[in-house]
Design a protein that fits this description.
about 70 residues, alpha+beta, 3-stranded antiparallel β-sheet, 1 helix, elongated
């Protein structure tokens, strides 16, 4: 998901039994996999507040590395 940042991705899990779609946004950085957010997908597009929350968490991750 380049809208969040470089090397950010979305894992899609469709739970057909419970009729729920889950999304996990994550970032790949050298030896780390940084989980940014987990949420239920209810509509076609990812809501902006989930994208903004993921961007904030990614920024916080890089602040910790400095």
């Amino acid at each position: 998901m380049t809208v969040i940042g470089k090397n950010c991705h979305e894992l899609r899990i469709d739970d057909k039994l419970n009729k729920v779609a889950w999304r996990i946004t994550y970032h790949l950085h050298k030896n780390f996999i940084v989980l940014l957010d987990v949420f239920k997908k209810k509509k076609g597009r990812t809501p902006k507040h989930f994208i903004e929350k993921s961007k904030t968490r990614l920024k916080e991750f890089y602040e910790i590395l400095e």
